[in-house]
Specification:
By secondary structure, this protein is of the alpha+beta class. The chain contains nine helices and 13 strands.
Length: 331
């Protein structure tokens, strides 16, 4: 099998492509290193093709890896034209396509559509599901309709309501990670070109769920503690995630994931779900990440089995069944 891994990380932004913030650049490299380590251990993969921005250094994993040089083929790109040409060509040449990219500004959706157009197995959620999840407000509306607990969400332009006194959190509706997330009293500084949403500040623990979705069924992998820092300007940064946060009852989180898997057709492979665990009302859902997340970086080591191999198999093997693991190990 030839696997094409496209890592959308542009250090300063290729001409015409939006530059990613430093935190997302770091997260992307952590995910890439973990994925390459997992996939390199899969004997059925003869070659891995990796697209990477020419201004970035080789992935740290490769510098210290014992993988034969002829097994991983690096393609360095330095322009939008090169990016689009190689992306189109390599997707058609490979047996499976695994994108590592944010869902913001339609980047991930476009990549997924290319794989679907060429009928290449996509190791990710489908483009339609990505399009839904790229909008936080649309996602929360769908989840709320199923009865799941979600944070209240308003367009920035809608008048404030006295039902939610206190602090508001502002986010780009199609933002990824903590990009652009801030707590504000005065909204004059918000970029008018961005479609902002606002949500009432909720006290609780910032957590996420990692799961594999296969044929609208969910397999819970871990519950993760998100380490979020707020700077003096009240802007958020994700510093990292700690997997295997012990929470009970597990059946509650399995129910959440099963309902999510049924609510948005096309969710597949690995997904992450962000939520706040409140002291008195339990979990409150924030968003769905239809892609790899920062938590993946340590997941195989934390769980003791090859998560990347399982995700790949869930897409390319129609009779896939999940790896057997002890439920208590999922947090």
């Amino acid at each position: 099998m030839k696997l094409f891994i496209l890592e959308y990380i542009t250090g300063g932004g290729l001409a015409g492509h939006k530059a990613l913030p430093p935190s997302m650049l770091h997260e992307g490299d952590l995910m890439l290193a973990a994925l390459l380590s997992d996939i390199a251990a899969v004997t059925g993969i003869s070659k891995i093709i990796l697209l990477r921005d020419a201004r970035l250094p080789p992935p740290a994993f490769l510098r210290n890896s014992s993988i034969p040089d002829d097994r991983i083929h690096m393609i360095w790109i330095s322009s939008v034209a090169e990016f689009e040409t190689h992306c189109d060509r390599e997707i058609r040449r490979c047996d499976a396509f695994w994108p590592i990219a944010p869902e913001s500004t339609g980047i991930l959706e476009k990549m997924c559509r290319m794989a679907e157009m060429y009928h290449v197995p996509l190791i990710n959620s489908g483009s339609a599901a990505v399009a839904i999840c790229a909008s936080k407000s649309s996602t929360l509306q769908i989840l709320a309709a199923t009865g799941l607990p979600v944070v209240s969400c308003f367009r920035h332009a809608t008048p404030s309501t006295s039902a939610y006194p206190g602090t508001w959190v502002y986010k780009p509706d199609d933002g990824a990670g903590c990009d652009g997330v801030q707590r504000l009293a005065d909204t004059a500084s918000l970029d008018p070109a961005v479609q902002w949403i606002r949500q009432p500040w909720i006290e609780g623990r910032n957590l996420s769920i990692s799961a594999i979705i296969h044929h609208q069924r969910a397999w819970l992998l871990s519950i993760n503690q998100q380490i979020i820092e707020w700077d003096t300007c009240q802007k958020a940064s994700l510093l990292g995630c700690k997997a295997n946060t012990p929470l009970q009852p597990l059946s509650l989180y399995q129910h959440l994931m099963d309902t999510i898997a049924l609510s948005i057709p096309g969710l597949a492979a690995y997904i992450g779900v962000d939520f706040i665990l409140t002291p008195h009302h339990g979990p409150v859902l924030l968003e769905i990440n239809p892609r790899m997340t920062t938590s993946y970086a340590t997941l195989s080591a934390d769980l003791g089995w090859n998560i990347g191999e399982a995700i790949l198999a869930s897409v390319v093997q129609h009779d896939w069944v999940p790896h057997t693991y002890t439920a208590s190990s999922t947090g």
